[in-house]
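thought: fold this chain, then report.
action: predict
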Amino acid sequence: MNGALGPEYMVVLGVFASMIAVMVSRQRTIAAYWAALAAVVAAGIWTAALWSSPALPISLYAQGVRVDLFSLAIDGLVLLASAGALLVGWNDARYGADFPALVLLALLGMMVLGLANNFLVLFLGIELLSLPLYVLAASGGYAESREAGLKYLLLGAFSSGILLFGLALLYGASGTMVLTQLANSSLILPLAGAGLALTVVGLVFKLGIIPFHMWVPDVYEGSPLPVTTFMAFGTKVGAAAILLRFLFYGFSVAVGWWEPALGYLAVLTMVAGNLLALAQKDMKRLLAYSGIANAGYLLVGISAHNQAGARAMLFYLLVYGLAVLAAFSVFTMVARERNSVSLNDLTGLARRSPWLTAFLAVAMLSLAGIPLTGGFVGKFYLLQAALDANEPGLAIGLVVGAMIGLAAYVRPLQRAFQGGDGTSEAPVRWPVAGAVVVVIAVLGTIGLGVYPAPIVHIVNHSAAFDWLR
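observation:
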């Protein structure tokens, strides 16, 4: 049965292999990147092989770990995020020899969150995700990176304390630490309510939901571009996965405790996040506020509390992640040796690199939810889930947020098509690894917008929570 944890074992082996590669050479070596990428690919192959296993779902370690189709879908998403981050930062001397190993450690934390069915495993996953990211955020040798790492560390430690206190109260109120046993336990109501509130606050902090979002723009802006890419995609997947599993498995019969509050937070986050994105001139801050708004979209799927919402959330995680990978890959190429990209840096990009501008346009239009992109299909599924749950407020908030966001995403494209004749600007250099990421991400974004049926089929099986309406 422990073969069910094969993907996690592959990642652990990748951590050791990448560390040994650096130790043997006693200097920075590309072998560490190849070892990390090989581990990600091996974990992906094992995940695909487990998908057809008739033994699923499998509970291990006194029901602390639950391997099912949902956890395998989360594994696939975070493996994609880590592969993208490794390729975007491929063998860049600015990020240190430990970059591949730290990415794999954070990846392992995300995978643990996908299969957590116990308070201890949940907290272990959160910390295993967060600690490497604190170090990664401070890497790169930039002063703003060190500041970003310190801010992330302090606020992350504070949120982890809130989460741990909430889990302790829930254990005291229920007498169990297993999520699937919470619904059948006799809860001490005042204590359980306080524990639920604190636990949800700790989880939505990781997701970047307003008003627990203040760390996101500063950390995104200061972190190196590959790290920001990884955080924007992978952290969203891990936090959304554990929040859905925690609420759907543990408090599905007590929907009134959390559904209204999350609904209000979702609407506030979608609208305010897109409004704040409008004023940004730094592209990393723009995508930071975009990530906040998109976290609100993900919260729509959870607040709907139905199978359609869970499926829409999983699908939207993929389309959002592909758009983020494409956009950050383009920004990394434009930035060259710098750690930031402004609107002015995009001026005349269409003349310098037409194909790169086209790829950026696909990513931005997908984030805006324009038809024939994956973002449109994802928002449509979320809208449908809100209407199926008889939550018109969520649906209206989603539409209003998307309309506001369109203006924010069009601004970089408008600037890319402006400028002089471009004779004084050298063409943008395309690193091979970065080009692979942007091409695959753009093709996936268009493919999901034109023919999403295969992925929808996978998502429908992954989020088959039979006890939901």
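thought: worth noting. The chain has a mean pLDDT of 88.
final: tokens above.
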